[in-house]
Hints:
By secondary structure, the protein is α/β, with parallel strands linked by helices. The chain is built from six helices and seven strands.
Amino acid sequence: xxxxxxxxxxxxxxxxxxxxxxxxxxxxxxxxxxxxxxxxxxxxxxxxxxxxxxxxxxxxxxxxxxxxxxxxxxxxxxxxxxxxxxxxxxxxxxxxxxxxxxxxxxxxxxxxxxxxxxxxxxxxxxxxxxxxxxxxxxxxxxxxxxxxxxxxxxxxxxxxxx
Length: 162
């Protein structure tokens, strides 16, 4: 092998490996692109919810539901290893620095409380409907959104609304 051929071959290998994926049109997934998400309320499907909600590539931080017994079998089947809490306030107090966003799937009459608890800690919230039952609840959440400078989103029949 000629010296020039050898140098070209040897120097070409590291250069091809050093080209970033985005430079050749491939998607890049870094730690900065991954959200750390906690789920509040999910009942018996708590272990499957992150995958049903399209969060399978995100970092699942914790799960919370008031009925540990109902969630236990689902968590065993889903092989979840995340911490489980029965109180969303305790979960958010302990892990709020690790959580980027919270998905709230609680029964209708508790959506506002769970949403507000997360917003007070500066955590982004995604809540399933119905978010509120009266004007006072809606006004309280709008004021909290402005006060705590967080993003609040609500899912409504497969459409996202602010």
